[in-house]
Amino acid sequence: MAKESKSKIDAAWDYFDKDDLKNAMKIGNSLVRIKKWSLMGNYLLGHIYFKQKEFLKAIEHFNNALKLDVNSKIGGFILYWMGKVYDYSELWPTEDNLLYDKAKAIKSYVESKKYNTYPADVIFSIAPTLNDYEKVVLYGEGIKKFPNEVDFYIYLSKLHRRMGYLSKEVEVLELAISKGIESSSLLFNLGIHYFEQKRYSESERYFRLCLEFNSNDNAFPLIHYQLGNCFYEQKLFDKAIHHYKQGVETGRNDNGIWYNFMGLAICYKRQAKIENLNNFISDIPADKKYFGYIGFEYGLMSYFDGKILEEVQFIQDGKELILILENLKFGNKNNLDSFKISLLIVALHDYLNDSLSKLNILRTCDTNFFGVDFIADRLSESYNNLLSTEMFNDEIFELFIFDIENDFFRDTLVESVLADVIGTLFNKKKYGEIVSLFEKIDDRKIEKLDLLFRYAYSLGSINKPTEAKQYYELYLKSNPKSSAVLNKLV
After folding, report:
1. Tens-place pLDDT, residues 192-204
2. Which of 289, 294, 312, 490 is the most buried (most CB within 10 A)?
3. Exposed, middle or buried by CB within 10 Å (0-12, 13-18, 19+), for 330?
């Protein structure tokens, strides 16, 4: 009987792994009726109901399994999965899981860790609730308990770096290497450590090894970029160019192409060969996939062989790059390649937080290549940055008013931008400017954005009581109990 039941539970887990939950559940239900196998039967049914998102039944069977685990064989795993039940939600708010309770989830993870055996993920699930010093202890425990789990070494090393303990950072990474752990992520972090210490030859060695071990296509541009940076810092420009080129070729689906392109630009400038950039720009398709979301301010990021997102910061000089790109020659000033370069320069101004220069370039961009909506959306973003902050001034406001005269910008104006701009003007008591702006905007848009009160108030403030009354009354249709408006109309 025992042998038969063991065969059944093995078959049930095979069905479960193949997503054949019907047959897995059939076996699970038969096992819970056998006293000796009721523990494993309930544990299996808990997993099946969790997978089906039937959380009440899942927690019921996990609780049954926990009570039956009198010898503490799998209690650590049961409590971990109970934590996952309480933790689960794909929606915000958490309407998809009536049992969602973060406190209960953490309590389950903590209880799980008291058993001799538990999943490594228990530690990662507890860590967000702790301070840095507590995390150092926790990840240290993780390394002792799971000596081959590379992510513990990497998390602990990053923690030491953030806390300023650089010698401990490299000590933890090299401990993992000494244990024979093979990991491209581990090698990458060692490369980053030595690069930041300006020990470029050692950094290069680890990045080369990382390149050999890496199996994630999305990470190749990041590794090539960092190798290019190593050689650039050693003034080995031909070798740097080789890796930046590889980064361009392997980075066609993300910002990796542009980080490496900018590395090429600097190297070619050092070699007085910036004309070599022309072919690279011409070869990259004029597609929003490549030019629509260029960014340098957030770092180049990718996963390697673990669950940790690795990151490399953009290190090239943004101001120098703008000068290099501005001096590229394409013949016709308004051709497609010039448009591509303009978008790159816009991204660099973003990186340098120079919103006004970014705006000035966008205002001259040809709308024929990517369409009017594309440029209008980016103009709206720029105006929002300038007009809804301390950078607001009369000159920029006049440009905004001028651009609204262009149908393409007015019709596709991002509505939240208009609301933010009006808010800034209202706070600054610039009522005349508000009226000038509203005169160019359709009344339906004013009403949709709930800006009628501010428009009416502004009209009254510049001595236009008749017009103000008209818009106050319009506002009252949707806000009949507004005491502020009723007082104005008395």
Report:
1. 999 999 999 999 9
2. 312
3. middle
DSSP code, position 378 = H
**Which residue in the block uniquely carries the two structure tokens 């970014």?**
358
Q: Mean of the pLDDT values across residues 259-278?
A: 94
For the segment 206-246, what is each residue's pLDDT rounded down to a tens digit? 999 999 999 888 899 999 999 999 999 999 999 999 999 99
Structure tokens at 218: 């999305």
Q: Which residue has the tokens 């019709």?
A: 411
CB 73 within 8 A of CB 85: no
Instruction: Look at phi and psi of residue 287 and say left if phi exceeds 0, alpha if psi is from -120 to 50, else beta.
Output: beta
Are the beta carbons of 405 and 441 closer than 8 angstroms?
A: no
From residue 489, give the alpha-carbon distance in Å to each of 302, 434, 460, 465.
Answer: 60, 21, 11, 10
Q: Please classify residue 155 by burial: count the beta carbons closer than 10 Å to its beta carbon, then call 0-12 exposed, 13-18 middle and 19+ buried.
A: buried
pTM above 0.85, yes or no: no
Task: Enumerate residues 6+ apart whose C-beta is below 8 A from 32.
Answer: 38, 41, 42, 45, 64
- pLDDT tens track for 282-315: 888 888 888 888 889 888 889 888 778 899 999 9
**Residues 89-100: b if buried by 16+ CB within 10 A, e if exposed:** eeeeeeeebebb
Whether the Cβ atoms of residue 327 and residue 274 lie closer than 8 Å to each other: yes
